[in-house]
Amino acid sequence: MKSVATNSPAGFQAAKPVLAIEGLTVSFDGFKAVNDLNLYVDRNEVHVVIGPNGAGKTTVLDLICGKTKSTAGSIEFEGRELTKMREYDIVRAGVGRKFQNPSIYENLTVFENLEMSYPAGRKVFGALFFKRSAQVIARVEEVAGEIFLSDFLDKQADLLSHGQKQWLEIGMLLMQDPALLMLDEPVAGMSVSERVQTAELLNRISQGRSVLVIEHDMEFVKSIAHRVTVLHQGKVLAEGSMEAVQSNPKVIEVYLGH
Amino acid sequence: MEWLSDFGAIAVMQGFNGLSVFCVLLLMALGLAIIFGQMGVINMAHGEFLTVGAYTTYVISSLTLHYVPAMQPYYFFFAIVASFFIAGALGWLVEWAMISKLYHRPLDTLLATWGLSLVMQQAFRSIFGAREVGAEMPEWIMGSWAPTAAVDIPKNGLFVMGLTFLCTATIFLMLYRSRWGLQVRATMQNRVMSRAVGINTKKVDRMTFALGCGVAGVAGAAFTTIGSTGPTAGSLYIVDTFLTVVFGGAASLVGTIASAFTIAQAQSIMEFFLSGSMAKVLTLSAVILILMLRPQGLFSIKVRK
Amino acid sequence: MKNAYESLLGGKQGAIGLLVLATLILVVFPLLLDTFRLNMVGKYLTYAFVAVGLVLCWGYGGILSLGQGIFFGVGGYCMAMFLKLEASDPESTKIQSTPGIPDFMDWNQITELPMMWQPFHSFSFALLAVIAVPTLLALIIGVAMFKRRVGDVYFSIVTQAIAAILTILIIGQQGLTGGVNGITDLKTLLGWDIRPDSSKVILYFVNAFLLLGCVLLGRFILTSKLGRLLMAMRDKEERVRFSGYDVASFKIFVFCVAAAFSAIGGAMFALQVGFMSPSFVGIVPSIEMVIFAAVGGRMSLLGAVYGTLLVSFGKTYFSESFPELWLYLMGGLFIVVVMYFPNGIAGLWETHGRKWLSRYSLGKKLFGVPEVKARVFTAKPVEKAAPRELETTP
Known about the structure:
The complex is a heterotrimer.
Chain A: E1 19-28, E2 31-41, E3 46-50, H1 57-65, E4 72-77, E5 80-81, H2 87-93, E6 95-98, H3 110-116, H4 124-128, H5 134-146, H6 162-175, E7 180-184, H7 192-205, E8 210-214, H8 218-224, E9 227-232, E10 235-240, H9 242-246, H10 249-257
Parallel strand pairs in A: 3-8, 3-9, 6-7, 7-8
Antiparallel strand pairs in A: 1-2, 1-4, 4-5, 9-10
Helix pairs in contact in A: 3-5, 3-6, 5-6
Chain B: H1 2-38, H2 46-67, H3 75-97, H4 106-128, E1 144-145, E2 153-154, H5 155-177, H6 179-189, H7 191-196, H8 201-223, H9 238-248, H10 253-273, H11 276-293
Antiparallel strand pairs in B: 1-2
Chain C: H1 2-6, H2 11-32, H3 35-60, H4 68-87, H5 103-107, H6 123-146, H7 152-172, H8 174-177, E1 188-189, E2 192-193, H9 197-223, H10 225-235, H11 237-241, H12 247-273, H13 283-296, H14 301-321, H15 323-340, H16 344-357, H17 361-367
Antiparallel strand pairs in C: 1-2
Helix pairs in contact in C: 2-9, 3-9, 3-12, 3-13, 3-14, 4-6, 4-12, 6-12, 9-12, 13-14, 13-16, 14-15
Organism (chain B): Pseudomonas turukhanskensis
GO molecular function (chain B): transmembrane transporter activity
Transmembrane segments (chain B): 12-37, 49-68, 74-94, 157-176, 209-230, 236-260, 272-293
């Protein structure tokens, strides 16, 4: 397990960020969805990326986790260059990613869903001889507790509510104990009380790891963000605390001017 | 200088040979490019729709010869049109009864249409017999055109070439310049959205599939000028045709044309040096190898998902 | 598809299902059928190897190979080459212009055994080759296709094209392969005559045991975490990939296993039937093997065996009595099964058969659905994940 950081994350600037994106560009037939982007995520930081539709937010996550290959630039994660790595190696290096629509295995139970993400038996023969040990069970139960699903372990995942599915996917990422957790619109489709619970969940799990979140819900962003980056047309428009960003005239222009 | 002109003549005829193969392949592939490329439907019975066209031509030629022999020189044009509509109507029916129930299950579509192809082959055998039949060709399509003493170009090849050009141009215009084409492309890109803006996507699917089958029928009619027709004539080409469409980049019509051209020329050039079967083995292997390097096909656009 | 497998049962049902199948092919068939018919069933059971492999790679892995005939054929050829060399000793081939080489080579004016054939003098090499060559081939195809993320449909088409290529090659290289006739007149295996009835019965049992072994191995794979991963991949490939799994390697693995199974079937075919020819390699036989699995139930290892037997019986019966009808039936079967019974016999059994049998007390005891019991997770370590969604037992 990770040692819990002692500093307050908000004002803490590590000497070296966990994730350093520099000069990142991706072009789809000439259209630059992400254009010479620089973005840094510090240790133990909850970093939220906001921006209008089509700003390139999801594409940035795609680039980090290797789903999309960059045209230029570098993504350095804990000293390793991600742009050259395979998706599964990126995950194994400690990057977890939640998709925009809850992406869970609907005909497996909650337990099995979590177990699938347990970081053992990831290779062919490992999976063939994987055993459900006491250790695995304990870990699944621990994570299930964190994501409010302790009572649903035996339930088939497609019977969960939309919000619970979102949590389940977050739980699947927690199973991997990633150093960087990336969440694409984690509270989309959630009720107000679920949003509050999710904010609490994020604040809890960001202890000892960095979290990169894409979100539209400003109330929610306010409740979790240590730092906010505004993307516009594939570039950073503004960066800073939520208050600073919200009062930035350029940001207001982009959001209201459209 | 004698050898040079001989060489030239061989090159011209060989080139023409390749062009003929190209036309045959392209005519086959056009229908598939619409059905597979645009709709994403795998129709393993595509070859049988071609056979339907060929048999239609055969029947019309026999009927003409029997009842109105005077019309014999002209029946062929009528046969092409009839092949288009009969194969198209059959396609319409198939879409209604089978394909429409299997969207979202591409692999199952593949198997079901394979079953359909077996049924159709046996139906041909029951109706027309297992032996190959040939349509009686009009005089003007027979023989060859010899611009010089050494060069000898068959007229039926020229005819097929013309027909291929016509079909390709028509489909190109329909797909990229007509309102219907716009609807097809819109539906294939975003079905829900298309429905929302008032496109009857079911009808678009059905008409598109029928059109693809109709084009296969025209290809079948054209084939009768080159060879005879048997119950399994169409199925012989199905793998080549699929590879052609896939190789070109499924959704690109230009890609299909380019890939048909490449495959046909490669095959006919290799056939000059090797046996026919080895040429085919090499061509298909090369296509597969290139596909492994470039799974999205020759012509495809990089899109943001 | 899901509903039929919602109520899939665990260990006891699996064991009973396997027992029923074992009884059928090890006891019932040998007692009821004469040697000729038994040999025929043996031939069908060699196809069942392919169908069982297809359940793994198509049913669970979601990759539809339309080229399983390739592996069946290559496995069969490897075995046939060994047997042919044994049958072509200089004594029995002394009338040839070059004694000691297979007859078809002599007919093709070949005067020396080709390099490719040399190692097949050794039985252990041949046995190894039966498994290794097809598996290696599958590995190459699999790596090339899945690492490059070729889509499902493209994969099907490409495997079909490879089957076509291989057939053309085999037919074209007459001197090397026996051409369209294949390798015929196989006589002895290490001096043991494989032609008399007594040998055929023994080979039938060897074949049956191998098949049951493959079914068991298949079940082991499917009930492991790998089996669950396959299902998860079919559903949410991206999620699996971004949970740290190399999706391609799992697909390659099941594809290789399916190929190895098919190859064993092919080798047993050559032994039992006494020849191997390109007519088992190409597009048509490959896709026929898919219909075996589809009829039996693409998600059921045992179903695949029943499906193979049923369709093959049907084919033999109809093509003997009503050859006209057979293609209609076969085609119709493809259409109807795929459109209306995607789970095949196994699915029908789950929805109807089991219920029907439960009316009788013995049937209920053996096959009855236990009181609908939510699968409660018990926190016992080292418990085989109860495979509710993994295996069905017709």
